[in-house]
Write a structure and sequence with these properties.
229 residues, mainly alpha
Length: 229
Amino acid sequence: MTIPFGSIVNGIAIIAGSLIGLLLHRSFPARIKDIVFQGIGLSILVIGIQMALSVSDVLALVFSVLIGAVIGEALGLEDRLERAGGWIKARLGSSDERFTQGMVTATLIFCVGSMAIVGAIDEGIRSDPSLLYTKSVLDGFTSVALASTYGVGVLFSFVPVLLYQGALTLLAYQAQGLFPTAAIAQLTATGGVLIIGLGLNLLEIKRIRVTNLLPCLLFAVVLALLNIP
């Protein structure tokens, strides 16, 4: 049994960054927050495009996204996640109107990406959390900017991050032979598509229900393992 130290450190970094962001919340002029978020949005677009361009099977990526979108929309994943955020908000007695949006946005930024996937799997397979430690630094700085704009909801994104990455690490540890390079590459490229959608949301170019696209990650792995388009 391995302990997912990388994910634990990642969660702590998000909490620390969010607390700093909340302290700076009133100190940041609106124009500073806007330009910072636009910068983050543009950076996320670049990251997403870079990830997506690593695709080895474009047809499989398209099928993964389409099938995942239909299933995610049918299940109403985004609505469910928003209701979960609203429930947490109500339990905390928060009056922050952007609580749910902040939690959902931060969760997607921190969870959907090659560093989260590859880092968690690498820790499970080789007991090397260095990639997740690097991600923790990036997430810590990002959570400062997110929390200063979206508020306390960003802080609670550490829960799904810890559960998601920790589960991947434990799964990789138990089944080390089930993660071939081709599957990880296809998963990274498909995740890049979701990151691009998230960047468009942050830049307010187009509202995309990115959460409803999450099932496409599972289908990306399945199609890569089956080696069919």
